Amino acid sequence: MTKIDHKEARETLVKSLQETFPGEESDELGAAVGHWLQSPNHDVPFLSTSMRKHCCRLLQSSKPPKGVNKRVGEDHEYYQLLLPIDWSDIPFPPVETPKFKFIDLFAGIGGFRIAMQELGGKCVFSSEWDLPAKATYEANFGEVPYGDIRRIDETTIPDHDVLCAGFPCQPFSLAGVSARNSLNQASGFAHETQGTLFFDIMRIVKAKRPQCVFLENVKNLVGHDRGKTFAVIESSIRSLGYDFRYELIDASPLVPQKRVRCYMVCFRDTDRTFAFPKIEGAPLPLKSILEEQVDPSFTISERLWAGHQRRTRNNLERGTGFTAFCADIDKPANTIVARYGKDGKECLIPQSGKPPRMLTPRECARLQGFPEEFLIPVSKGQAYKQFGNSVAIPVIRKIARNIVELLPRRGT
User: Which has the closest alpha carbon to 261: 112, 384, 392, 107?
Assistant: First the structure.
């Protein structure tokens, strides 16, 4: 049977659905069709039964596979037999024989997804509202995430075993709190948009009751507002019948970057005792991920370097403010953040006889443990933002392995 390119299939289906079902047109239709192509045996948000049958009629071959006599639209298994989709152009195609199902909330560029798929997980729902991040996600997984999670009816999300979410950290990070305070803006749960998104996680947990909730955030979350914010998070999760375990983990033994994050693992059945993996060992050196040949465009200007040095001297004298030094490549890098692309001050690589250079996007990918085959289809500035916001994949992988060991052994 001739395979159909997934992008061509999605574009064709979206166009036909918009023409055939004008009353059901949705801004999320592209995401809905893409999710359905990866999981044709699942219902997905914004795609009704009649719309799924219509998609099947457009994609099916002239003759059903041998031994299949059912009519189109009779059941989901038949859909799957009639949808020979070609995923060969993406680095991380959907898992064919999954061991468990998970969803990817505030998905970013898919750090959670890479680790969970490696362990046999099938992603049945993803959500991310940043358009460039969605483009990177699609290039690597062949799926456009849904947008604003606040617009998704939680009852339409497919059943899943693990809910993964690196929910927005800016309202809780030290930099985010400092910036908002200087502008007299609210932070944490008082922040009107990002801070309250934790409660969108809770409404999904309440409706779908996954076996496990796996969350990641900045280390400052634990002490934010003298611990009140974290207490609300813990009590909210426990009120739904889940255990709550957390740990602050430094990723530097696994990636050459000082990156301490708060990881939370919450199992629904408290008789299954989760234990975080021991992540020990010497920090990895920055030089282990540096490229040998780097384009001169990554070298910062003489003017910018002089400004960094001047502000560093002034701030050291007054005892406050940022500093910018060349990195010691025999040690791990400082934490890479979303703003890195502005001036590179968090990590500048020394060069002989000229100003230091910034990391390349590929080096930033390596700092977060992304595989070499991970595609970077966006601009340099967007890539810095995306990797700065990402999770450290090797840490997620180790924690996820312990989670998967406690999941019920069953087919999906």
Answer: 392
Would strands 348-351 and 354-358 be described as parallel, antiparallel, or unpaired?
antiparallel
- Encode pLDDT of 330-381 as tens digits: 999 999 999 999 999 999 999 999 999 999 999 999 999 999 999 999 999 9
The residues spanned by each domain of the chain are: 1-89, 90-283+374-412, 286-373
> Would you tell me how many other CB atoms lie within 10 Å of the CB of residue 301?
9
Question: In this predicted model, what pLDDT tens digit does every residue of 68-90 receive, in sequence order?
Answer: 444 444 444 444 445 678 899 99
Q: For this structure, is 164 an active site residue?
A: no
Alpha-carbon gap, residue 258 to 331, rounded angstroms:
9
Torsion, Cα of 4, 6, 12, 18 (10° steps): 140
User: Any idea which fold 90-283+374-412 has?
Assistant: Rossmann fold (3.40.50)
Which residue do the tokens 């001297």 mark? Answer: 313
Residue among 56, 169, 266, 364 flagged as catalytic: 169
Q: Which CATH superfamily is domain 286-373 in?
A: DNA Methylase, subunit A, domain 2 (3.90.120.10)
According to the model, what pLDDT value does residue 234 have? 93
* Residue 25 pLDDT: 67
Nearest Cα neighbor of 236 from 277, 263, 194, 197 is: 197
What are the residues facing 35 on neighbouring strands?
A: none
Distance CA 357, CA 331 (A): 17
Sign of CA dihedral 57, 60, 62, 68: negative
Q: Give the count of beta carbons closer than 10 Å to the beta carbon of residue 239.
A: 10
Percentage of residues of the chain with pLDDT beyond 70: 86
Q: Tell me what pLDDT residue 1 has.
A: 57
